[in-house]
Amino acid sequence: MRKFSVVILIFMMIFGFYFYIEGYRFTPEAAANANGFVTNDDELIGKYQDDSIFYLYKNDEKQEYRTVHVRKNQYTYHSYASTFIAYSQDPLQTIGGMSVRYDDEKATIFVLLSKDPAIDSIVVHTEFGDEKKKIMKDLPIYFQFPYAQQIDQIKATAYDKNGNALYTYGGESESIKWHEI
Q1: Is this structure's pTM higher than 0.70?
Q2: Alpha-carbon dihedral of residues 104, 123, 115, 118, nearest 10 degrees?
Q3: Distance between CA atoms of 121 and 132, rounded to whole angstroms?
């Protein structure tokens, strides 16, 4: 019986080590930090948890923001995907964005940062209606949707306090960004 217990214990340790190496963790933040693209130089700057779980990191050395998606399994969390966006000097920047599509989960995250004090609000236009949020200079805001929408397909407009459009989001492949009107 003692031999059987030792074999089971060794098997459980190997099994646990395998799951740890694969990035499975007991908290969503630990799983995000275990993502293969997240390094010790990355600084966590945002956690966005509505229907899905996303984390946003920034890395001053690489000059990029990284969005990490975390999925909940039965008892653990695991990060399957991440995206990055390079730093920009634009007055209105997309600093995070990602869409995921699994059998049991669909989600989109869109994170913005304004350096322009004239911008009062952002409206994201979707097929389900418009979603509007106030924005403050140097404070990120996010939009999270319960469906998968490629970031380059998002239609959004930035407005001043009088309702005048200042910027629109879009462009062709490599130039997808905020454009002044």
Answers
A1: yes
A2: -170
A3: 7
